Fold:
Amino acid sequence: MGEVILEMKEIDKTFPGVHALDHVNFEVRKGEVHALMGENGAGKSTLMKVLTGIYTKDSGSIIYEGKDIEFHGAREAQDAGVVIVHQELNMVGHLTVAQNIFIGREFKKGIKIDDKKMNEEAKKLFDRLNIDIDPTATMSDLTVGKQQMCEIAKAISHEAKVIIFDEPSAALTESEIEDLFKIIRDLREQQMAIVYISHRMDEIKVITDRVTVMRDGCYVGTLITDECTKDDIINMMVGRVIYEEPKTKSMVAPDAPVVLKVEHLNAGKMVQDVSFELRKGEILGFSGLMGAGRTETARAIFGADPKESGDIYVNGEKVVINSPQDAVKHGIGYLSEDRKRFGIVVQKSVAENTTMADLPNYIKGIFINKKKEREVAQKFVDSLNTKTPGVDQLVVNLSGGNQQKVVIAKWLCKNCDILIFDEPTRGIDVGAKNEIYKLMNKLAAEGKSIIMISSEMTEILRMSDRVVVMCEGRKTGEIAIEEATQENIMNMATREIG
Structure:
């Protein structure tokens, strides 16, 4: 590692009702990958937004390349070489790759945009990163992984000296993550300073040089990655020990009644002849590689996507589900993997989101009973330990883990007996994960039945009573948790049928 290129000292930031940053310290050196970790709501994103001028700090100092600076907006930070590669990609789908990379900074020939020059410059960037992407390709035609590479190329095009990666691997496949790590290592070799924000412990140990941990808006400490363990980092993040032992036996009684039965479900090429049963009080894990058809199966059951054929039974009775309203009527709730698109309305309050699926019960005459709504929302804030200044807080201002708790509260408020959790802990830190796990176990113990779709093998093995495995739209196996291992699940997840 080289000299310190960026140092943040005693950074303080307060929002109404929230002390978001409490005299935080952070530094990054040339030629290092420095992880910034902490639970959701710890202040990581706020600290980076202060750095890049999106938020104005209340006090403290930022020293960049030996000078005391304060950026007034992301564009000013970019021009100085401090760039964020966001988790949620900011690309325009119908434009070409090159047009996206140079958007707002287009090369011109006279008054016309010089696409030839932009394509040439984009090609140079890709060559520098050893990436094979056609600059003339339409952005929407690329995989998420390739789009992520374009975001990195865009960052490099600003002559970046400090690159902040915010959850860069959240939507990537294993092979795409390997490609990402190769690029990051190449950038480190070029003496780039890299801040790496992630919740994935295994990644931190593989790709980073140092780890700085934040908790509740405060700086906890900095560790050298090679000299610390995963448990050391977790303990600093949450202030307690978290055990991630796999489940060794099913918690479901052998004679537990079947609450959901799916027979020969077909819905496009991603759902082909899928059959399974879910029992009362069971957590049924759905495992498989990305693109296996797990989410598509869940959406077909929930009525979010049309099914072509197949039967669905709830508590032994054949039901017709053509819409999410039908599913909810039959006691099925669905927590989407994309909570911001399908789970919550971020510009509404915690209270409004909590009662959304059960709104008719809160209407008095032509008005919503706001007092009753707030009381019920507060009950779920308390029981789920949701971190929010109050139930009137807009959901957009909550961390990812706490937004997920609001989605769960919505379906608990509706009192659904069958819950589909699609990637329930995606983008959530280890502490919040543990709380979600405890909650799921509590719900199952109370008699709720849960289908849990997860791409994390440790999550499948820790939480499931039984595991259904899918590959390319088909169910390729089903296994009791007592017999489940990473190896036999992966064998089923890569097995082709017919």
About this structure: The mean pLDDT is 88.
